[in-house]
């Protein structure tokens, strides 16, 4: 009877040039954490960074956060960080959208967040001069966003404490922040949250209770572009009933 010969090959280990280098760890820098207000970033600097391991930090795109310290292992720290963050989120919004669910941002003092950072527009985010006379924010007149977001603006943003800001992006995406430490922090958090959802830069539509961009009133707005992407705008149609909105931080109406 003929015998079958079996040949085995032993894989050689990849050379140093073929091996993928391990991902580089990034040290946690509180001032670079998106979505969080300045006092929250400072609290992480003074309380979280020096705390003992095992620990983890979770954040939400709506500005909530939570962390445990001195846990038995990394898995327990992750679990409790998410629970603490989501509990903080649901105290303010009992039914948050899925996009607001908390995410692990750091393990120990190293960044563990692997998502793309929010896309931000260049500064200045608003012009030094405001529209004259001032345009009061009317949720019913906010362009581009759906009806439920206008309702959320009327019920949440308008009564919310200043400093506050409202950002709008492509596809009807919007985000509102209030009770921030400064106008700059309110705008930064609104743009970060909106840019995270839209995956492209947004613009500040309102600061406080005033509209800070030029808004056409004689035509219906159907889309928006930043001036830096003007060449990508479609050719306007002959219809006089609608017009793309080109947000520019200057005053006035047309």
Describe the structure.
This protein is an alpha+beta fold and 254 residues long. It is 22% helix and 15% strand. The chain has four helices and eleven strands. It starts with 37 loop residues before the first helix and ends in a 9-residue tail after the last strand.
| Broad shape | elongated
Give the helix/strand class.
alpha+beta
Helix content: 10-25%
Tell me the number of helical segments per DSSP (H or I, 4 or more residues long): 4
Mean pLDDT across every amino acid position: 83
N-C termini distance: 96 Å
Q: What is the string of helix and strand elements?
A: HEEHEEEHEEHEEEE
Bin the strand percentage. Answer: 15-25%
Main sheet specs = 5 strands, antiparallel
Residue windows where pLDDT falls under 50 for at least 5 positions: 229-246, 248-254
Strand order of the largest sheet: 5-9-8-6-7
> What is the tally of beta strands?
11
Radius of gyration: 24 Å
Keywords:
disordered C terminus, 15% strand, 254 residues, single chain, 22% helix, four-stranded antiparallel β-sheet, alpha+beta
Write the layout of secondary structure elements.
Blueprint: H1 38-48, E1 56-59, E2 65-66, H2 74-92, E3 103-107, E4 110-111, E5 135-136, H3 147-157, E6 165-168, E7 174-177, H4 183-198, E8 203-207, E9 210-211, E10 220-224, E11 242-245
Parallel strand pairs: 10-11
Antiparallel strand pairs: 1-2, 1-3, 3-4, 5-9, 6-7, 6-8, 8-9
């Amino acid at each position: 009877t003929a015998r079958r010969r079996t040949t085995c090959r032993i894989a050689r280990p990849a050379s140093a040039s073929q091996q993928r280098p391990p991902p580089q760890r990034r040290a946690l820098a509180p001032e670079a954490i998106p979505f969080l207000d300045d006092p929250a970033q400072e609290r992480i600097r003074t309380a979280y960074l020096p705390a003992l391991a095992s620990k983890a930090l979770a954040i939400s795109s709506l500005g909530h956060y939570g962390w445990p310290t001195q846990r038995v292992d990394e898995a327990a720290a992750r679990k409790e960080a998410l629970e603490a963050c989501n509990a903080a989120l649901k105290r303010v919004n009992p039914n948050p959208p899925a996009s607001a669910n908390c995410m692990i941002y750091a393990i120990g003092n190293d960044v563990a967040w692997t998502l793309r950072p929010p896309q931000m527009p260049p500064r200045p985010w608003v012009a030094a001069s405001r529209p004259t006379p001032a345009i009061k924010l009317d949720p019913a007149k906010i362009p581009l966003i759906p009806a439920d977001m206008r309702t959320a603006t009327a019920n949440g943003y308008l009564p919310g404490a200043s400093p506050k800001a409202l950002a709008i992006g492509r596809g009807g995406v919007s985000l509102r922040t209030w009770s921030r430490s400064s106008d700059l922090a309110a705008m930064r958090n609104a743009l970060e949250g909106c840019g995270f959802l839209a995956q492209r830069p947004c613009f500040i539509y309102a600061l406080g209770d005033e509209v800070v961009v030029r808004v056409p009133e004689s035509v219906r707005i159907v889309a928006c572009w930043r001036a830096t992407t003007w060449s990508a705008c479609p050719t306007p149609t002959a219809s006089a009933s609608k017009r793309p909105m080109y947000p520019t931080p200057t005053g006035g109406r047309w």
